[in-house]
Prior knowledge:
The chain is of the alpha+beta class. The chain has a domain of about 80 residues: VC0802-like. It contains three helices and six strands; from the N terminus they run H-E-E-E-E-H-E-E-H. It has a six-stranded antiparallel β-sheet with strand order 2-3-1-4-6-5. A hairpin with a 2-residue loop joins strand 2 and strand 3. It starts with 11 loop residues before the first helix and ends with a helix. The mean pLDDT is about 90.
Amino acid sequence: xxxxxxxxxxxxxxxxxxxxxxxxxxxxxxxxxxxxxxxxxxxxxxxxxxxxxxxxxxxxxxxxxxxxxxxxxxxxxxxxxxxxxxxxxxxxxxxxxxxxxxxxxxxxxxxxxxxxxxxxxxxxxxxxxx
Length: 130
Protein backbone atom coordinates (compact mmCIF):
# COMPACT_ATOMS: atom_id res chain seq x y z
CA UNK A 1 0.00 0.00 0.00
CA UNK A 2 1.46 3.33 -1.03
CA UNK A 3 1.09 5.97 1.68
CA UNK A 4 1.64 9.54 0.56
CA UNK A 5 0.65 11.32 3.73
CA UNK A 6 -2.14 13.18 1.95
CA UNK A 7 -4.86 11.08 3.61
CA UNK A 8 -3.64 11.94 7.10
CA UNK A 9 -4.29 15.00 9.27
CA UNK A 10 -2.76 18.31 8.14
CA UNK A 11 -4.40 20.84 10.49
CA UNK A 12 -1.84 21.88 13.09
CA UNK A 13 -4.37 22.58 15.86
CA UNK A 14 -5.86 19.09 15.50
CA UNK A 15 -2.44 17.46 15.29
CA UNK A 16 -1.14 19.15 18.45
CA UNK A 17 -4.29 18.35 20.43
CA UNK A 18 -4.15 14.67 19.43
CA UNK A 19 -0.43 13.83 19.20
CA UNK A 20 -0.80 10.91 21.68
CA UNK A 21 2.90 10.36 22.44
CA UNK A 22 3.92 6.77 23.12
CA UNK A 23 7.18 5.97 24.91
CA UNK A 24 8.91 2.71 23.97
CA UNK A 25 10.78 0.66 26.56
CA UNK A 26 13.85 -0.15 24.44
CA UNK A 27 17.01 1.91 24.32
CA UNK A 28 18.10 2.93 20.81
CA UNK A 29 21.47 3.61 19.23
CA UNK A 30 22.43 5.57 16.12
CA UNK A 31 25.27 3.52 14.62
CA UNK A 32 27.32 4.17 11.51
CA UNK A 33 27.55 0.87 9.67
CA UNK A 34 29.50 -0.71 6.84
CA UNK A 35 27.90 0.44 3.56
CA UNK A 36 28.48 -2.99 1.99
CA UNK A 37 26.78 -4.90 4.80
CA UNK A 38 23.09 -5.79 4.72
CA UNK A 39 20.69 -3.96 7.01
CA UNK A 40 21.13 -5.39 10.53
CA UNK A 41 18.14 -7.32 11.92
CA UNK A 42 15.81 -5.27 14.10
CA UNK A 43 16.83 -1.98 12.49
CA UNK A 44 14.17 0.69 12.99
CA UNK A 45 15.56 3.10 10.38
CA UNK A 46 18.33 2.96 7.80
CA UNK A 47 19.51 6.40 6.74
CA UNK A 48 21.80 6.84 3.76
CA UNK A 49 24.19 9.76 4.09
CA UNK A 50 27.08 10.73 1.80
CA UNK A 51 29.52 9.46 4.44
CA UNK A 52 27.76 6.09 4.74
CA UNK A 53 24.63 4.58 6.28
CA UNK A 54 23.36 5.04 9.81
CA UNK A 55 21.29 2.31 11.44
CA UNK A 56 18.86 3.33 14.18
CA UNK A 57 18.15 0.23 16.20
CA UNK A 58 17.41 -1.10 19.67
CA UNK A 59 20.55 -1.59 21.73
CA UNK A 60 21.16 -2.38 25.40
CA UNK A 61 23.82 0.33 25.35
CA UNK A 62 21.80 2.88 23.37
CA UNK A 63 21.64 6.46 24.60
CA UNK A 64 18.26 7.31 23.10
CA UNK A 65 14.60 6.70 23.90
CA UNK A 66 11.96 6.54 21.19
CA UNK A 67 8.69 8.44 21.41
CA UNK A 68 6.15 7.98 18.63
CA UNK A 69 3.36 10.46 18.02
CA UNK A 70 0.45 8.15 17.36
CA UNK A 71 -1.63 10.77 15.56
CA UNK A 72 -1.59 10.06 11.83
CA UNK A 73 0.10 13.21 10.61
CA UNK A 74 0.39 14.08 6.96
CA UNK A 75 3.80 14.50 5.42
CA UNK A 76 2.36 17.79 4.10
CA UNK A 77 1.41 19.11 7.55
CA UNK A 78 3.13 22.41 8.35
CA UNK A 79 4.54 23.27 11.77
CA UNK A 80 4.13 20.10 13.83
CA UNK A 81 7.85 19.35 14.07
CA UNK A 82 8.54 22.94 15.11
CA UNK A 83 5.85 22.91 17.80
CA UNK A 84 6.96 19.73 19.52
CA UNK A 85 10.66 20.56 19.06
CA UNK A 86 10.10 23.90 20.83
CA UNK A 87 8.18 22.21 23.67
CA UNK A 88 11.16 19.91 24.20
CA UNK A 89 13.69 22.73 23.71
CA UNK A 90 12.00 24.75 26.46
CA UNK A 91 12.83 21.83 28.76
CA UNK A 92 16.41 21.62 27.42
CA UNK A 93 15.75 18.25 25.77
CA UNK A 94 17.34 17.47 22.42
CA UNK A 95 15.13 15.80 19.81
CA UNK A 96 16.14 13.78 16.77
CA UNK A 97 13.16 13.22 14.50
CA UNK A 98 12.46 10.58 11.89
CA UNK A 99 9.20 10.90 9.98
CA UNK A 100 7.41 7.90 8.56
CA UNK A 101 4.49 8.09 6.14
CA UNK A 102 2.01 8.27 9.04
CA UNK A 103 3.86 9.06 12.27
CA UNK A 104 6.71 11.13 13.67
CA UNK A 105 9.29 9.30 15.79
CA UNK A 106 11.29 11.41 18.23
CA UNK A 107 14.52 10.19 19.80
CA UNK A 108 15.40 11.91 23.07
CA UNK A 109 18.22 11.28 25.55
CA UNK A 110 17.47 8.12 27.54
CA UNK A 111 17.78 9.86 30.91
CA UNK A 112 15.26 12.57 29.89
CA UNK A 113 12.60 10.29 28.39
CA UNK A 114 10.00 10.74 31.14
CA UNK A 115 10.44 14.53 31.05
CA UNK A 116 10.07 14.48 27.27
CA UNK A 117 6.90 12.40 27.51
CA UNK A 118 5.48 14.80 30.12
CA UNK A 119 6.32 17.81 27.94
CA UNK A 120 4.54 16.28 24.94
CA UNK A 121 1.51 15.28 27.01
CA UNK A 122 1.31 18.84 28.37
CA UNK A 123 1.65 20.26 24.85
CA UNK A 124 -1.25 18.12 23.69
CA UNK A 125 -3.39 19.12 26.68
CA UNK A 126 -2.72 22.79 25.94
CA UNK A 127 -3.64 22.22 22.32
CA UNK A 128 -6.86 20.45 23.26
CA UNK A 129 -7.79 23.30 25.63
CA UNK A 130 -7.21 25.99 22.99
